[in-house]
Fold this sequence. Notes:
2 copies of one chain form a homodimer.
Chain A: H1 29-40, H2 46-53, H3 57-70, E1 73-79, E2 88-96, H4 100-108, E3 113-120, E4 125-131, H5 134-145, E5 151-165
Antiparallel strand pairs in A: 2-4, 2-5, 3-4
Helix pairs in contact in A: 1-2, 2-3
The first copy, chain A, binds a DNA duplex (30 and 30 nucleotides) through residues 9-10, 13-14, 45-47, 55-59, 61-63.
Amino acid sequence: MHSEVVASRSADQRDSSRESRSGTPQLDAVSLAIIQQLQEDGRRPYAAIGKAVGLSEAAVRQRVQKLLDQGVMQIVAVTDPLTVGFRRQAMVGVNVEGDVESIADALTAMSEVEYVVMTAGSFDILAEIVCEDDDHLLDVINKRIRALPGVRSTESFVYLKLKKQTYMWGTR
Amino acid sequence: MHSEVVASRSADQRDSSRESRSGTPQLDAVSLAIIQQLQEDGRRPYAAIGKAVGLSEAAVRQRVQKLLDQGVMQIVAVTDPLTVGFRRQAMVGVNVEGDVESIADALTAMSEVEYVVMTAGSFDILAEIVCEDDDHLLDVINKRIRALPGVRSTESFVYLKLKKQTYMWGTR
DNA sequence: CGCCACGTCTGCGAAATCCGCAATCCCAGC
DNA sequence: GCTGGGATTGCGGATTTCGCAGACGTGGCG
């Protein structure tokens, strides 16, 4: 009933030969299993997680703390923006002349911008915007984003209906 | 030190005149403050939250449980896909002929698709895809998405660099 | 007005959980 | 074979969670 993870106890928690280029350590099967548990319920007690992954309560606690410290995961409350009073959302595609990264940084600094990613394709940057109403959205796009020096053009996609949003990376 | 929320105790926790059209109840200031606390740390103890928002431990516990039951928020672990072994991500814009929603549903059913939203603009649907490698990504886009009957065209934006991703709705 | 129903808040004791720490184990290097 | 570092375990003590009974405030109704 517990989908026990075997993983030959205390194998390679951090095998330095498997570091990704960004310096982020790879995760072993046990840590992955711990993350999965916490993706189902971020408040699940350490003892319960330990039983599921085959580790003691203290060991789970230690690994969770390390994962948090390393920034591999965070345990947070996520909400539906609509119920929290944000009624307009949009994805904005941005084309840039000159330094793309500095524009991306400028977008990152805006509190209405939830999500910024540099892409390959017909946009240089995609940014998701969360606003309270149409006026607010219009203001952010036309007055603030298009005003940035280096922004050549933008294209907006106003959200009509959010169909799916999961946080289950690795739970497949 | 605690940014106390006053809120004239036991005022309108759920004022039925302020229901949004979707039937989701509006949140009062105290619940919002609780959510903010949990957005900073999803495992923060109820007593600490209570001190911050001016409520007893039991009351906070009750409200959090209700927020979870109502689906207003969820407390989960979120990770950086890269560190969990997903090396390719892309946003895909989809154009549809016929029923948009049924295509959106089909995308929603795919485990590689993290995010599906119906939009106004030059795409009918935006979908975010999380894959293990290029082959996997290619397979999902060309074999699975473009094969859906009703999909007229797609345009892909492969992620080069994720600059920002927050879960702080309402914390502004 | 009195009364009741309903929802929320509080206080409190019992059970479960979290936390820190010292001891142990395991592997790699010398 | 010995040693060092990291991971794990076991264990009390402090803290937190949990369930529940009682209090409080509001609104409906005879």
